[in-house]
Amino acid sequence: MVQFDQDLQSIQEMRDSVQRAKEAQLKYLTYTQEQVDEIVKRAAHAAYAKSHELAKMAVEETGMGIVEHKKIKNEVGSMAVYESIMNEKTVGIIHEDRVNKVTEVAYPYGVIAGIIPTTNPTSTAIFKTLISLKTRNAIVVSPHPRAAKCTIEALKICEQAAIEAGAPEGLIGWISKPSMAATNELLKHRDVNLILATGGGALVRAAYSSGKPAFGVGPGNVPCYIEKSANIAKSASMIIDSKSFDNGTICATEQSLVVDRNILQVAIRELKNNGAYILNAEEKVILEKVISPAPGKLNPDIVGQSAIKIAAMAGITVPSDTRVLIAEESRVGKEVPFSIEKLSPIFALYTADSYEEAKDYCLKLLNLGGRGHSLSLHTNDEKVAKDFALEMPVSRLMVNTLSSIGAVGGTTGLKPSLTLGCGSFGGNITSDNVTARHLINIKRMAYGIREASIPKPSLENKQKNDAKDVEFIVDQVLKQVNPKGEVDANVIAQMVNQVIKQYQTN
């Protein structure tokens, strides 16, 4: 009964937040581009200034990740995102094509529902708030229950700064005691106009089945191929840095290594030099049970934990400087724990005897769970890079960089974003790094620029049509003759007049 009462309270709070957000958004519609930009700027700077405090809160509340790394994610979600959208036009006329006489006008969706994951609770909340503010939308956030405090603190920081800059109160809302019932109702609320869903597969499916426009993201079982032409020492350093970043909680983090056989020993040596521990056959079997207690199911207790802690959970002793655990593997499937998305510093290592086998391993891993998301490639052969870009079913391909922060725009020229679309490969509406431009609609005013000459019917067609008209009238006349032979004279006269007029106009 207590749980029932909590659900009701959560649902009522959600409804109140949506109502306030809707009212605030109607006021926000009247704001100029300059007013909007000042609000976004102030919110971004305020969140950036609290990056460390929010990172610390997130680690303490969720028990996942590393404070220094979450601080970097908060900085990307605030200042990097802000700098990437600060000069975009999102209010009123945003583009005029004077040659083709087409004018584009931006208008917002309205109220956005933001679903926040436990793995990136503060950075994602900041990011979604900033792109919503930039586009004159309101946002109501449903935090993950295990990360509600830190998520709401991030929202409060943005809200206070926005209000001080002139934003209407209620523009940023949240559910302080989130429940699945309240989240599901938020997704279907009549006053919610768009959904930004970042979370587990079930949650994303719920967003897509809500009947609302939705940007959701799929899982990221990212393969990492070290091709024989790669700078192996440099690649190994980046790969271990990326895999251990925030203990593997970014969905674009590398999940499995595929290495050409003729560089295997060198690659293993360099991985070890950077803090990798290679499991023996016995240790691998033990850790498999820790990774996945049931086929295809990831043990949530290992998500965002350090390699040393996960090894201890399995009763395996590793050196104190261990950053990543690696086991050699040859199979791919839900029943193969090392081949699934692990969201922790654990790697499967596949050895490819040929280039085609390497591509096959990558494709199998993507089809298992990361189709449409991302792939990491280390090579100095441009032909290989282009071949992968053309053939792999992914939306982003990171070459010679850290996949985890490269995919979100940290080390690449990709748009800074904490919501990475998987395109049609992954059942998503977009393959982009979602940003402000995805949260505006565009109406277009178009002047006529070409004369249109509409051809008149030909004489032959006109005669045929006239003949059909006469046949139709005659048919109607005959129908006026009843079985007794009686005729309505007035009706017949009218029909005859129609025929005469038809021919007079020819």
Written account of the structure:
With 506 residues, the protein is of the alpha/beta class. The protein has three domains: 2-217 and 437-445, Aldehyde Dehydrogenase, Chain A, domain 1 (3-Layer(aba) Sandwich), CATH 3.40.605.10; 222-414, 3-Layer(aba) Sandwich (Aldehyde Dehydrogenase, Chain A, domain 2); 459-504. The protein contains 17 helices and 15 strands. The protein has helices at 2-28, 33-49, 51-62, 67-85, 121-134, 148-164, 180-188, 201-208, 232-244, 264-273, 281-291, 307-313, 355-370, 382-391, 403-407, 459-480, 489-504; strands spanning 92-97, 102-108, 111-115, 138-142, 172-174, 194-197, 214-216, 222-226, 254-260, 276-278, 324-328, 346-352, 372-378, 394-399, 440-446. Strands 10-11-12-9-8-13-14 form a seven-stranded parallel β-sheet, with helices on both faces. Strand 4, helix 6 and strand 5 (172-174) form a beta-alpha-beta unit. The longest helix has 27 residues, at 2-28. It is globular. It starts with a helix and ends with a helix.
